[in-house]
Amino acid sequence: MPIKIPLHLPAKEILEKENIFIMDENRASRQDIRPLNILILNLMPEKEKTERQLLRLLGNTPIQVNIHFLKTATYDSKNTSAYHLEEFYQTFNEVKTKKYDGMIITGAPIELMEFEEVDYWDELIEILDWTKENVTSTLHICWGAQAALYHHYGIDKYLLPQKCSGIFTHRVLDETDKLLRGFDDEFPAPHSRNTELSIAALNDHPDLKVLAVSDEAGPLIISSKDGTRIMITGHLEYEATTLAEEYSRDKARGIDIHVPENYFPDNNPEKTPPNRWRSHAHLFFSNWLNYYVYQETPFEWK
Q1: Cα separation of 134 and 1, whole Å?
Q2: Is 164 a catalytic residue?
């Protein structure tokens, strides 16, 4: 089944060319089914690129999904046009009286800041607390995962000696967990961050379980025991060239950055990197939508 997106969203044309099954509001209104309503709080600077990455994965399940985009009211994005934000995004005040089957909170390139220094931290805390009663399951990505672990569980991030960037092998720690159903025992996933979480602190918390970990890149997938919160420290949603674009951007800014590990063929930035994590990315999002959202959400919110 498809995802339902706004009629003129720019990502629509790109996804249609990739044969991703999508529909606009006009066609969706003629289908007599109960779709899932998914809210995406997009904190990334290049919002259209992140939209495309997430919609590609959300559109590959047998469940019809209605997508709603959320922006911060206390911080204005400088990398996305005001028209795009006004046309396709809402603020928290506009949605806080509603219920959602699932929610995604993206990462943001602000991990070197203390959480309390972030312009929209108070607003994000309000949203995180709101999800407890108004969202069936929330998926937090990269900085969004670190923010959730800090606010909900008191687990802080710490600075790495150098940026963790590349494709790393991860071990499945609990093959019986529904989120990892169908996963290989080992699988690759992209990381791109300057901070890390303590695996000991995660393991010691009674309300958390670590589901996948890398010897090089640390914990990747963490879940609350009840499945209402999923935290992923990497970027399964990344496209094949995303890490290359980030590497070129940082080099152009004069940042002393190493070549992403296990990424470019022959470790040569002039060569086109392959996507080696696509199948597990689709499986992860499908499992989350099916087992943690669709199977758990009420047919009618009270």
Answers
A1: 25
A2: no
DSSP structure class, residue 273: P
Q: Say what the pLDDT of residue 198 is.
A: 97
Q: Which residues of the chain fall below pLDDT 70?
A: 1-8, 11-33, 299, 301-302
User: Are 80 and 50 contacting, i.e. CB atoms less than 8 angstroms apart?
Assistant: no
For tokens 């800014």, the residue is: 253
pLDDT at 301: 63
Distance in angstroms (rounded) separating the CA atoms of residues 130 and 122: 12
Helix (H, G, I), strand (E, B) or coil at 133: helix
- Cα dihedral: 288, 277, 221, 198 (round 10): -160
Residue 30's pLDDT is what? 47
What does the pLDDT read at residue 1? Answer: 45
pLDDT of residue 5: 64
Greatest pairwise CA separation for the chain in angstroms: 56
Cα–Cα dist 183/176, whole Å = 10
Instruction: Check the annotation: does 163 bind a ligand.
Output: yes
Q: Give the pLDDT score at 151.
A: 98
Buried b (16+ CB within 10 A) or exposed e, 208-226: bbbbbbbeebbbbbbbbee
| CATH 3.40.630.30 corresponds to the domain 3-294 | no
Residue 261 falls in the annotated catalytic set: no
Could you state, in order of their start, the residue ranges of all structural domains in the chain? Answer: 3-294
Query: Which one of the listed residues 68, 170, 235, 280 is annotated catalytic?
Result: 235
Query: Does the annotation place 249 within a ligand binding site?
Result: yes
